Amino acid sequence: MKKFFILILVGFPLFFPFPFQAYGFEVNTPAPFFCVRTGDDQELTLDILKGKVLSVWYETKEVVEKNKTLKNALKNFFLTMPGDIKTQYARVPVIKCSPASWPIIKIWKYKLKENSKKEGITLYGDWDGKMFTDYGMKDNESNFVIIDKKGFIRYRAAGKIEDEEIKKIIELLKNLLKESYPIVGKRELPRKIFNSQSSFVIVPLSESGYTSELLCRAHLLLPHRAS
Hints:
By secondary structure, this protein is of the alpha+beta class. It has helices at residues 2-15, 68-79, 83-86, 104-119, 130-134, 163-178, 213-217, and strands spanning 35-37, 43-45, 53-59, 89-96, 124-126, 143-147, 153-158, 183-184, 187-188, 191-196, 199-204.
């Protein structure tokens, strides 16, 4: 009887696996696709934001005040941007709403709309929990992610972000906003700048990521334009 009982205990995990949460994608790897919605069911996806630098918060409603200092710093950073730079940047606050079910979901949507008005920024809900899973977000915590114009994760953190780290985040965002990625067809490709004596020629990289050296050196045949 004892042997039978031990066998059941040892075999239990094989038949009833416990959920495993791997926290996050590495920095400098492609950001997973996400789709979130407002309290009015307005949809926002990673594809819609393509070509922008993104500051993404992912939080449960219990911890939305934890990184208030960072949020205020990024709000001020956004408000002081020149108009042409603002179009290249987006703040994306996401609340984990997957625990909500009918009929409580109607209350959550109402609260999301009211808090959007209160905060002066549109709040989005992850209603099916897919973003939480795909990004490996830490539960019951303030998660913060920066995604660059190419759609790569450039920074991620979970928990309280201190003042010194906030300064580094602002500097990183400034540098990322300077990067330029023109659209070739439907794909965004980085531009490489070639110095030719006193002038510069900006050549889009090919889809394979390379540009022929002959083309690069034939700068006199290409129209010169400012970046």
